Amino acid sequence: MAIRILLVLFVLLVFASASPARTSASAYQLTAVGSLNTTGATFRHLWYTNGTLTFSGIAPAGETVTATIDGSAATAVADASGNWSHPVSLSEGDHTVVFAAGGSNFADFTLTIGPAPEGIGELKTSDTPTAGAVAPTLAFLSLGFLLTTSGLFLHRRLA
C-alpha cells in the first residue's frame, strides 16, 4: 500500500514539474528606467528629470512584454539573451506606467517627469528587498526530501 502511495506521489511530481505552467512573475523584471538601475527594487513612484528615456528589463527569450503608459499600450520582445527595451518620450508631469507579461503585471508605478520633491533621495537597491518567490522552490525541495526519506524508510522495512 505504501509503495502505491509513493508511486502516485512520484507520478504527480513528474506531471507537476513537466506540465507547461505559465512562467512565474519573477522571470520578468524591469531593470532600468533611463539611467536609474531598478534591479530587485520595489517602488510605487519614481521621479526622473528627463522625459526622453528607455525602460529596460529581462524576460524569457522571445517573450512579449507590454508597456502601458497613461493607457497607451506598446510591446517589446525579449531578444535571445532575454533583454528587452522600450524607448519613450514623455512630457513633464505624472505618468501611470504598467509592464505586463506572462498573464500578469510585473511592474506598476507612477513616473513623474520633472524635479524630485525636497527630501526624495535616489533609489538604493541595497535598501529594498529582491523580487521573486521562494515558496515553489521550497515546496519542491520538501516534497523531494519527503519522497527520498519515505523511500529509504520503506526500503529498510521491506528488506
From TrEMBL:
It comes from the Bacteria. Residues 1-20 form the signal peptide. Keywords: Membrane, Signal, Transmembrane, Transmembrane helix. The chain crosses the membrane at residues 133-154. This is Bacterial Ig-like domain-containing protein.
